[in-house]
Design goal:
This protein has about 450 residues and is α+β, with helices and mostly antiparallel strands. It has eleven helices and 13 strands. It has a six-stranded mixed sheet with strand order 11-12-10-9-7-13. The chain has a five-stranded antiparallel sheet with strand order 1-5-4-3-2. It holds the Pfam family HisKA.
Length: about 450
């Protein structure tokens, strides 16, 4: 059973994956089996009449030969045998008990032929495929039923072969090729619209507007294309409405918050109360920003070559200027393809989370390095960390870990935004425990062919 499963897995690995070639392979197999079946059926019903025709020809040759030998003068029989061999290819030899003969092949056509010949010449008729060293179709006969002398007559093998066998094979192969070509065109007519639909669906998944699909062809394909075009149109209108709503939210909420903050700072209240209220306003502004970032989805910014060292340095510098302790470990340069705005947003979210949960009094480690075919950007803190069984849940929007990280604020969208950014870059976000306590959040980006970097690492405080 293990070998059978191994062979099954091997054969499955060689099977085509696309609908076009799977359907074409199935149709081609069915056509081949049908042609083979019809060939066997035709041969099965064609063999008996052909055997009767060949038997009649063999019997005629034997009877004519017997008649010629009986009527010929004894002195001219040798000349007659030579003439038959030269002109007709028919050889006649006297049979002896010590003759070495090879039987005919045991096939259905040959059985039908010999049975019919015996029916007409007699049950004592013998057959052979070789007499001594001569190959041919050998038939025994007697000049007279009362004569004990027996003779062998040989017919050339080409007289028994199917004259049109090669022509039948050629025409059958041509018909099979024509059928396979027709099957390919039929399957292609179905597979081509499906490939266009799959391509358009990938564009929709990447938050792009695909070109309108043609609504022609078979009715089922046209209905699917029409429904897809309607869906993309609805999605485009929804995106436009969402952009309009987000613009209104950004203006209608942040403008009053700015006025409220200004009023609090000018109210003359005690400094600690003012600081607490300003911190609440900043937290509200940050939550609104996260909602806006999450609602916008993936931006249409095209990928371009980015130096991650330069990008990370520019993101970390404002935090260091305001007094945050951030340690940088980066090579001289590491270039990969990416979208700068999205990556800056993802890294800033990681740093904000680390500072919020670990505290600004503890140093953060931001490291950029080259992995196995990947560029790694790591933010490591000394906060409470995340239990391993909660990591996957926290990747979803609007989820927070209250038990591990208490007294926290926010909407629970930070990791969801980062996950979306990494998916747009065909990368991933790894959340790992840090030795000595804390969390390691690592952005893993695939390295393209045009990347540069060095193994030399510098450390800056």
């Amino acid at each position: 059973m293990r070998r059978i499963r191994a062979v099954g897995r091997f054969l499955y690995g060689w099977l085509p994956r696309t609908l076009l070639w799977q359907t074409f392979l199935l149709v081609g197999l069915l056509l081949t089996l049908a042609l083979a079946a019809w060939s066997h059926i035709f041969r099965y019903f064609e063999e008996p009449p052909r055997a009767r025709d060949l038997a009649q020809m063999v019997v005629s040759v034997v009877n004519l030969t017997r008649t010629a030998l009986i009527n010929a003068e004894p002195g001219r029989r040798t000349e007659l045998l030579i003439e038959l061999a030269a002109l007709e290819g028919i050889r006649i030899y006297p049979a002896e008990p010590s003759d070495e003969v090879e039987p005919l092949p045991d096939t259905r056509p040959m059985r039908l032929l010999t049975a019919e010949v015996r029916r007409q010449l007699g049950g004592d008729t013998r057959f052979a495929a070789r007499w001594k060293t001569l190959d041919g179709f050998w038939v025994s006969f007697q000049l007279d039923p009362e004569d004990r002398d027996e003779y062998w007559v040989m017919l050339p093998p080409d007289r028994l072969e199917k004259t049109y066998a090669q022509e039948w094979v050629a025409w059958g192969s041509g018909a099979l090729l024509a059928s396979l070509l027709g099957a390919y065109l039929i399957v292609l007519r179905v597979g081509s619209p499906l490939r266009q639909l799959a391509k358009a669906a990938r564009l929709v998944g990447g938050r792009q507007t695909p070109p309108r699909l043609e609504e022609n062809g078979p009715q089922e394909i046209a209905v699917v294309a029409r429904a897809f075009n309607q869906m993309t149109g609805d999605l485009a209108r929804t995106d436009a409405d969402r952009a309009l709503i987000l613009a209104g939210v950004s203006h209608d909420l942040r403008t009053p918050l700015a006025r409220l903050r200004l009023g609090i700072e000018m109210s003359g209240a005690p400094e600690d109360e003012v600081g607490a209220m300003v911190a609440d306003i900043e937290e509200m502004d940050r939550i609104i920003g996260q909602f806006l970032d999450f609602g916008r989805g993936s931006a249409q910014e095209p990928p371009q070559a980015l130096d991650l060292v330069e990008l990370v340095g520019s993101v970390c510098e404002p935090y260091r200027l305001r007094g945050c302790r951030i340690e940088l470990e980066m090579p001289a340069s590491l270039v990969t393809a990416g979208r700068a705005l999205q990556l800056r947003r993802a890294l800033a979210n990681l740093i904000d989370n680390a500072l919020r949960y670990a505290g600004e009094d503890k140093p953060l480690l931001v490291r950029v390095e080259r992995g196995m075919g990947e560029a790694l950007v790591e933010v490591a803190d000394r906060g409470p960390g995340i239990p391993e069984n909660e990591i996957e849940r926290l990747r979803h929007p609007f989820t927070r870990l209250e038990t591990a990280r208490t007294n926290t604020k926010g909407a629970g969208l930070g990791l969801a935004i980062i996950e979306r950014v990494m998916r747009a870059h065909s990368g991933r976000l790894d959340l790992l425990p840090r030795d000595g306590g804390g969390l390691r959040a690592i952005l893993c980006l695939p390295l393209g062919e045009q990347t540069a970097g060095t193994d030399r690492t510098s450390r800056r405080q």
